[in-house]
Design brief:
- By secondary structure, the protein is an alpha+beta fold.
- The protein has a single domain (14-183), classed as Roll (Thiol Ester Dehydrase, Chain A), CATH 3.10.129.
- It has helices at 79-91, 94-97, 163-168, 171-178, 181-189; strands spanning 29-30, 51-54, 59-65, 101-110, 119-130, 133-142, 149-159.
- Strand 5 and strand 6 (133-142) form a beta hairpin.
- The chain is globular.
- The chain binds ligand 3IX.
- The site of ligand 3IX has 26 residues, from helix 1, strand 4, strand 7, helix 3 and helix 4.
């Protein structure tokens, strides 16, 4: 049984999500939004190195290989790390909508323990959009994309502007991103959403 907070359930008048025409084609990798992201960046040695691909709808798939540095109990993935994996896959849905959003609420159900060495097969999709609120869901399975569910989550993401990061992030990291013209162009392009 799962108790679900109404904040992660779309209201009756929410709209169906629309795949952006410039979203990555189905099967294409959804690149990391930031090389130092713990979920998907290549610059974090202990990070999750999530490899995410676009699906045909407003959805993605990803694989997360659980390594010893991700343990909570002996030989098992830490629950917070599993939530991070789902959160990051959900965050990559931004590329399908071409909207920048951040996690407002993430509600996680843990159904099966996830051993070190296993691959978590993640599928995430946007279910509805209402103004700045983006409703999404993610599931992580063991043994393959059709395997038993180990962990799942419902989430509410909130659309923000690039200024959210510029105003709130530590200056050193923001400056480093702003010194990279490609990164600035990519971030700003998301704000021009037809
Ligand atoms: C040129 C430099 C570029 C630098 C940037 C570089 C790269 C960036 C690019 C992409 C990165 C994007 C995302 C990251 C992707 C993946 C990582 C995984 C995702 C994350 O890991 S991301 C980090 C964790 N995340 C946060 O760090 C959020 C902290 N938080 C806040 O920053 C504020 O909280 C915010 C902005 C969320 C809202 O603040 P706000 O002032 O804009 O708006 P407000 O509060 O009015 O909320 C509007 C309506 O949402 C409802 N609402 C809000 N929160 C709710 C909740 N929790 N439950 C139920 N309802 C909620 C309100 O009730 C209201 O509803 P209503 O309109 O009906 O009244």
């Amino acid at each position: 049984m799962s108790a679900t907070n109404t904040a992660v359930q779309p209201p009756a008048d929410a709209a169906a999500p629309v795949r952006h025409p410039e979203a990555p084609a189905p099967g294409e990798p959804v690149g990391s939004h930031y090389e130092n992201c713990f979920g998907c960046g290549s610059g974090q040695p202990h990070g999750l190195h999530l490899a995410t691909r676009a699906g045909e709808g407003v959805n993605v798939t990803a694989e997360f290989t659980v390594r010893p540095e991700h343990q909570g109990a002996p030989g098992l993935a830490h629950g917070g790390i599993l939530a991070t994996a789902l959160d990051d896959a959900l965050g990559s849905l931004n590329w399908l909508l071409r909207t920048i959003s951040v996690t407002g609420r993430l509600e996680t159900d843990y159904r099966r323990p996830v051993p070190v060495g296993s691959v978590l097969h993640i599928a995430a999709e946007v279910t509805a959009v209402a103004g700045r609120k983006i409703y999404a869901t993610a599931v992580g399975r063991l043994g393959g994309p059709e395997g038993p569910v180990a962990v799942r989550a419902d989430a509410l993401f909130i659309e923000v502007k690039v200024d959210h990061f510029i105003e709130n992030g530590r200056k050193e990291e923001i400056q480093a991103v702003m010194d990279d013209p490609d990164a600035v162009r990519q971030a700003r392009a998301f704000e021009v959403n037809p």
